[in-house]
UniProtKB/TrEMBL annotation:
Belongs to the phosphohexose mutase family. Keywords: Isomerase, Magnesium, Metal-binding, Phosphoprotein. InterPro entries: A-D-PHexomutase_a/b/a-I, A-D-PHexomutase_a/b/a-I/II/III, A-D-PHexomutase_a/b/a-II, A-D-PHexomutase_a/b/a-III, A-D-PHexomutase_C_sf, A-D-PHexomutase_CS, Alpha-D-phosphohexomutase_SF, PGM. One of its GO terms (molecular function) is phosphoglucomutase activity. Its EC number is 5.4.2.2. It comes from Insolitispirillum peregrinum. It is an enzyme of class 5 (isomerase). The keyword Ribosomal protein does not apply. The keyword Isomerase applies. GO terms for cellular component: cytosol. This is phosphoglucomutase (alpha-D-glucose-1,6-bisphosphate-dependent). Residues 14-153, 184-287, 296-408 form the Alpha-D-phosphohexomutase alpha/beta/alpha domain. It catalyses: alpha-D-glucose 1-phosphate = alpha-D-glucose 6-phosphate. It comes from the Bacteria.
Amino acid sequence: AVVQIIPTTPFDGQKPGTSGLRKKVKVFAQPHYLENFVQSIFDSLSDFAGQTLVVGGDGRYHNRVAIQTILHMAAANGFGRVLVGQGGILSTPAASCVIRKHQAYGGIILSASHNPGGPDEDFGIKYNIGAGGPAPESITDAIYLRTQTIDSYKILPAEAVDLDVIGSQTLGGMVVEVIDPVADYADLMASLFDFDAIGAMLRDGAFRMRFDAMHAVTGPYATRILEGMLGAPAGTVINGTPLEDFGGGHPDPNLVYAHDLVAEMFGANAPDFGAASDGDGDRNMILGGNFFVTPSDSLAVLAANATLCPGYAAGLKGIARSMPTSRAADLVAARLGIPAWETPTGWKFFGTLLDAGKATLCGEESFGTGSDHVREKDGLWAVLMWLNVLACRREPVSAIVTAHWADYGRTYYSRHDYEAIDSAAAECLMAHLRSEGPKLAGQVLEGFTVAACDDFAYTDPVDGSVSTKQGVRLMFTDGSRVVFRLSGTGTAGATLRVYLERHEPNPALHQQDTQQALAPLIAIAQQVADIRGRSGRDAPTVIT
Ligand code: VG1
Ligand code: CO
């Protein structure tokens, strides 16, 4: 077959957000829409002729169609080889693992993460670099620029590739290798954690766990690793078959959407440990019996216990967290005498720190935790790290976390999301905070004195790149914070996120309800941003 050059015209709005380009399936399914974006990726890269590209997705509706297009375009653009997960499946962390292990040039991941899937729901695409992580802003900016001028794309007209049979095929001059999506990732996990100790705990009958794959991509990974390699009883993994529409749910591992798991973990005779992951397998929620571990606390507890795991026995080089994530992990870093880094929201900002050996663990409040083993956050990795810690300590999750609070103080933390509000109203709210916020310095609000208010800007300590307007921070003299930012992953209107944080050193005050403990800060957020007036909403859509 001969490469075809197809004329096209630009589409508006192909700007990658926090984690790639996310739009409704109906937008992606328009003729040339995906092709324009993929060609813009290739046009923003250089020297990839004959190189290897990794391709896979979370299995949502449109995944297979999109992968066929990408394979035919990769062949037309001169890639030498593509590694694609069987059935078009690769979790986001597994894709990162495969890119690194096989020294690929880069990879394309198809996912809209925790957003619902199906013909009327969301789809997404992002490019990852050879180090395995999401493309930095220099590349995503170039891609966006290219989408605005693109006038043609290259594609090889050839039959569809069989994605279901493991092995090699050719597509024009390019080799397509359909790979087992789990194998490389499972090997990496076995190299980091004490599988003997975890397996012994899972098999002895006294310890019970449940993992909710939410009908999303981690089903095959969790089933193979937990029930297969570690010998957990069959049925440990629930909702373990990936479905194109995730069974109609939001594959978002939080207390609102992981309802099957939450019902069991907060019911009578609750298992000892519960966990869930999201659509593309990079998020995690950790639960004990009748106990929720906030993602910010999870990062801190894992950091404090990391040396119990073989892969981290030598200690941590540093801990990085996104700006809105609570500062619980900073306290652990200080105790360990290692650096604590604060980056903008989105995993792409951790890459340079990990590559430079400045950080080992990273985390985000949005149920994201990971390490230098790959360059994405990694849901099942976090679950295995918790299991390794539990296998060593043999204490309930709640006891480990409350002991951590007694030691370091408890950081009460919550995020309030106002989803799908009017975009103009949301921009107006942020503009108001940017101009009026700094004037609050020195004022006393609800008994809290404002130390400073700014719009977070970040200079990457490794490559010097600068990212501005990353969220308005209202900081108080006691260390409490209220942070406001707009989501960069939504596909309808704007989503306002309000992050609330207060450190409580006194163990006698560690058993409060989180929303009660944060009530004065919630009131301050309302007062300074007039959320009700500007958004027209009386209450947040989701509280995590
Ligand atoms: C959200 C989270 C952010 C996370 C991003 C991608 O972004 O807040 O912490 O990195 O999703 O996660 P935003 O811009 O909507 O706040 V995933 O699991 O969707 O790749
Ligand atoms: Co995700």
